[in-house]
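Q: I'm writing up a methods section and want to include an example of the input and output format. Could you take the sequence below and give the corresponding predicted structure tokens, formatted cleanly so I can copy it straight into the document?
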Amino acid sequence: MAQKTLAIILVLVALFPIRTIAEYSSFNHVLSPQSTQSEKISLRKTIGKSLLLPGLGEFSIGENRRGRFFIRNEMGFWLLLAGSLWSVSGDDSRLRAYAIRYAGADLSGKDEQFLVNMSTYEDMDAYNAYQQRARSPFDTYSSEAGYDWSWESEDQRLIYRDYLIRRDKVRSVASFTIGGMILNRILSAMDVVSLSRKRVLDAEVQQTPEGVEFRLNFRF
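A: Here is the clean output for your methods example:
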């Protein structure tokens, strides 16, 4: 599932116009000397809207189709994040209940390394024996400190390990999703900058004594 989330982010980047990245890097040179302070403030507000909610900046300047694209991405990310967090919460509850029932362990206040060690060793004595052989006595656990555990069977330890692996995978999906939401905001902000810099072509035809004069005016 983490791979699927990464693929979504890559597709998002691929669909976004590459030229926008180059344009954004030169944004400080965009505004002509005739640009007013109000125009600068308006552009900042539009960028702020996109950073707050991707697509909102596009809607504010009339680019509804592009705005819908970013908002759909945002909705998808929120749904994926909510599902991931809900799944992590459920897996964490199962981990704790399973550890209490089949290993007599209390996971309250324990760090992630303790959970990993529980999934690797049959009991606390086996773990401590390994640390003694590895000449790492300071890494051993004490039953008096509440770090005692003992699996009733090997199968139960393996089931617990599967729970732990699945929870960590879902956590990775949540992390990728948050990264996608940040990227979606950045791309939307860059998009409104690009849209604000589009050339506006005006054609003007005037009658002069010498004939017809045709003017092209470019505004940036």
